[in-house]
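User: My advisor, Dr. K., asked me to get a structural model of this assembly before our group meeting. I'm new to this, so sorry if the format is off. These are the inputs:
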Amino acid sequence: SQQGEEDPQALSIQEGENATMNCSYKTSINNLQWYRQNSGRGLVHLILIRSNEREKHSGRLRVTLDTSKKSSSLLITASRAADTASYFCATSTGTASKLTFGTGTRLQVTL
Amino acid sequence: NAGVMQNPRHLVRRRGQEARLRCSPMKGHSHVYWYRQLPEEGLKFMVYLQKENIIDESGMPKERFSAEFPKEGPSILRIQQVVRGDSAAYFCASSPGQMDQPQHFGDGTRLSIL
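Assistant: The format is fine. Below is the predicted structure of the whole assembly, which you can bring to the meeting.
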């Protein structure tokens, strides 16, 4: 069964706006990762945050992790049309272990 | 510096036939994972392999599905006697197997069952 649940399921914004996606999970984790998937393609790794970290930045991406609430958020600032994709959170519970994916957020960025 | 390579990209089979999906991990990666994605859904784990060993097959259906990662050559996901419900995108990922290293994904094989 899916561990993670993302919300919203779909998000439509205009170019230049910020996009925030949330992810909740159920069990203790080693790390949480965010991936992007363009239509018909594989997943591209965006950012990994360890369980002992609370916030991480990478370019226009900002990820937070609250292990007490078992939740994470992904913020994309100054969005671009090229950011249009589905975004998934995935949790890992151990070294080199399987990933458990959320249900994804479909982001549409319009000009 | 090729990434994870999967082939074929698209595979069409009739009910009852066999499907073989191949995955070559990134150079230097010895850990391979297979996931399945149904339309509009997230990926679901199937199996995790290292060279010549199955580490975790907790997501594999008990019948008709098997996976291997031989000493030489790509990892193979094999589905025997396919049924319509096997239609999905199958993704392979690889990692170096160290703590807190991301998995790198191929572009998947889209399996369609007629």
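One thing worth pointing out at the meeting: The radius of gyration of chain B is 13 Å.

User: Perfect, thanks a lot.
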